[in-house]
Design goal:
This protein is 67% helix and 1% strand. By secondary structure, the protein is an all-alpha fold. The protein has one domain (15-290). The protein has a two-stranded parallel ribbon. Helix 1 (20-32) runs antiparallel to helix 6 (137-154) and helix 5 (112-131) runs antiparallel to helix 6.
Length: 295
Amino acid sequence: MDRPNERSSHTKPTLLGGGVVFFISVLCYFLFSHFNYPWFVLAIAMLAVVCYVDDLHPLPSILRMVVQFAATLLVLFQFQVFDLAVWKIVVVMILAVGTINIYNFMDGINGMLAAYSLVVLATLTYVNVCVSPFVDQDLITFAMVALLVFGFFNFRRKAFCFSGDVGSVVMGAFVLFLLGRLVQTTPTGKVELSYLVFIGVYLADGGLTVLKRMLRGENILLPHREHLYETLCNDCKIPHLYVSSGYAIAQLLINALYFVFADHTLYAVCVAVILLFSYSAFFFYIKHYLQPKGE
């Protein structure tokens, strides 16, 4: 049970751990596919077990971090990329763990994880089916069904349950695995980082908030309410589902336009710049809009 505190965006105790359905979907796929992607599934299992325990009884942050790095290492085994230089592998692992945690940080209001992740997986389904196959589509389909089930209970004004870390961390790792497969199987043979725009809205809010707190010398692992989506809900009093839908629609628009522009790298750079300025402008406006006159 998740009980509200001063950092929460909800006001009533709510069942926690509903995101375990994401791990169950991966496990079901693993069994039905005759044990496809074993290292990846093992990584997801590690994350799910530790995060579920952490949802029940908080674990030391260092333990959670070690497990996340170990899980990332298992995914790299699945990708078979150990011919890379050691420093490149280390950089990839650090960026991967950082991205997983950003995905986790962004799960703080009703409907956000379900709506946003459905947009991302729908985009990757389009790429996989219509552009360039990079993964067994059944894996994505199982996860989308799990998201729909979870969304039925969470995408509500008064949610019946929250995903917990077992949901947000596992879904973050799942999305990152798909993006990694997509990069690895790019027909051109080059590392196509422009695919990161598929989670650009999350990266902007989560990443820039982390950067802001680091520059202030704060512990980025401690809970807070400084993300833009939290400010919109808690300070501007915009309903959770409006904000969640807005984030999902913004990401859907970005992803749709990706397939319109021929130069994907240039498009990704433009999106990054626009998100950076939009994030800064929103916070500047909100800070001055909410600040009492005379201060």
